[in-house]
């Protein structure tokens, strides 16, 4: 890819990001608006252009394009939103620096170019909590320091590891129900129910509800082209979270959602803050468990690596990080904003700017990972940034890694000769700017040895 092509790609990626930022604002338009009046409706030619952009190579094979941007320039401006420049960071060292920089904030409610109309929680009803300042993803400073420990406790190492037997049994049960000699979509028949059931077990979502919420979480994560549809889905998703948490209030147990209520009873979190925390755990936890089919996609496209893995599954746990690095569940972070100057490689990103970090670009940076576009299953890839870095690192990382390890181990030990149902067809990826998840994965399992 030439420098000119890299610049064109960066510009088109900027359009994609800005359109999704406008979508995000519309989902929460009860709460705030952009001071400069930017909305999806006045981004020129959004719908036809959006169809074209979602078909661009970035969706299916983003790494060559990201490499061209990374190699051709340090942090670069890729567009403007609400009167503020949007910068893209693609290099590993720059990404780590931005993710912990004191002048870089996740708190979009306090971005100085937004007209904040956040509703007072006292004036909102329980199913409107997402229209208040309660989402931990957008917290910094004291509020983040107060909320983060409750999230970490809800997804603690002890609690995640305690569900290991349940995870193993669920994997076996799901595999028992799959056909061996005809095409089966492993994404929807295996990976999704495995991840959802395990996440529900950790959080304490009743088993009869554990398959209800993913459709709304999917819509939030992979915005529908119709903003109104996404808005309706958002309301239903957050309403579902509120109903689950309301029911949990009267049946506390040893689970993540009960821990959030205990934090409320201890005076740490408000009622609306625990609803916001629960929504984040459900949404982000499901995203983390998407690494099962991402990892399998890596192996099916690299037969030699698949053969090495299946020849000695006892080493799989030590090889999962490389699979996660190679196909990270998040390509880009949500936009952060600067409240002071940020210096990166001699470039000054000014205050009142947005920064988007390409985690996928950082994880394929040859300055940190030798031959990054080669899948080396014996690589020490533990320093990958797939789950972020610093104070906002994904609290579901351990769960996602465990689900991927157990899910792939169960699958490959039973069906070591599985193959794509149509090897001539490329793997289909979800049309999302920020996420990297398989859309479908039809395979032939083959008979159990």
Automatic annotation (TrEMBL):
**What Gene3D superfamilies has UniProt attached to this entry?**
Cytochrome P450
In terms of Pfam families, this protein maps to: p450
From the Swiss-Prot or TrEMBL record, what is one GO molecular function term? iron ion binding
Give the source's domain of life in one word.
Bacteria
| UniProt keyword list | Heme, Iron, Metal-binding, Monooxygenase, Oxidoreductase
Q: What SUPFAM superfamilies would the database entry show? A: Cytochrome P450 (SSF48264)
Protein name as annotated: Cytochrome P450
Species of origin reads Amycolatopsis decaplanina DSM 44594
């Amino acid at each position: 890819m030439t420098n000119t092509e890299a610049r064109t790609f960066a510009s088109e990626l900027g359009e994609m990001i800005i359109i999704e930022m406008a979508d995000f604002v519309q989902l929460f338009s009860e709460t705030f608006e952009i001071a400069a009046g930017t909305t999806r409706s006045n981004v020129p030619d959004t719908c036809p252009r959006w169809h074209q952009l979602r078909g661009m190579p970035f969706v299916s094979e983003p790494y060559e394009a990201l490499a061209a941007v990374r190699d051709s320039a340090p942090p670069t401006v890729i567009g403007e939103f609400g009167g503020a420049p949007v910068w893209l960071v693609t290099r590993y060292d720059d990404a780590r620096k931005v993710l912990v920089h004191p002048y870089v904030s996740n708190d979009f409610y306090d971005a100085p170019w937004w007209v904040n109309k956040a509703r007072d929680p006292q004036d909102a009803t329980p199913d409107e909590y997402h229209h208040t300042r309660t989402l931990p993803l957008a917290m910094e400073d004291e509020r983040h320091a107060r909320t983060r420990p409750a999230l970490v406790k809800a997804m603690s190492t002890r609690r995640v590891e305690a569900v290991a037997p349940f995870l193993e049994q669920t994997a076996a049960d799901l595999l028992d129900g799959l056909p061996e000699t005809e095409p089966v979509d492993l994404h929807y028949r295996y990976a999704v129910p495995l991840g959802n059931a395990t996440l529900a077990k950790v959080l304490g979502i009743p088993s009869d509800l554990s398959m209800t919420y993913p459709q709304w979480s999917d819509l939030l994560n992979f915005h529908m082209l119709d903003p109104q549809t996404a808005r309706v889905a958002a309301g239903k998703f957050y309403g579902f979270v509120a109903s689950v948490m309301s029911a949990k209030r009267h049946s506390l147990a040893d689970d993540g959602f009960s821990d959030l209520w205990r934090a409320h009873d201890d005076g740490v979190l408000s009622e609306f803050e625990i609803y916001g925390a629960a929504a984040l755990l459900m949404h982000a936890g499901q995203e983390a468990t998407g690494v099962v089919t991402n990892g399998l996609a890596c192996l099916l496209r690299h037969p030699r690596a698949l053969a090495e893995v299946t020849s000695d599954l006892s080493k799989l746990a030590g090889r999962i990080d490389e699979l996660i690095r190679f196909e990270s569940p998040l390509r880009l972070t949500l936009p952060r904003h600067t409240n002071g100057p940020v210096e990166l490689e001699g470039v000054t990103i000014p205050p009142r700017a947005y920064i988007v970090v390409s985690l996928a670009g950082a994880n394929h940076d040859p300055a940190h990972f030798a031959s990054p576009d080669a899948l080396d299953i014996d690589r020490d890839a533990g320093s990958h940034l797939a789950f972020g870095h610093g104070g906002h690192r994904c609290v579901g990382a351990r769960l996602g890694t465990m689900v991927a390890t157990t899910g792939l181990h169960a699958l490959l030990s039973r069906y070591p000769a599985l193959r794509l149902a149509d090897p001539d067809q490329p793997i289909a990826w979800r049309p999302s700017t920020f996420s990297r998840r398989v859309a479908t994965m039809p395979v032939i399992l083959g008979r159990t040895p």
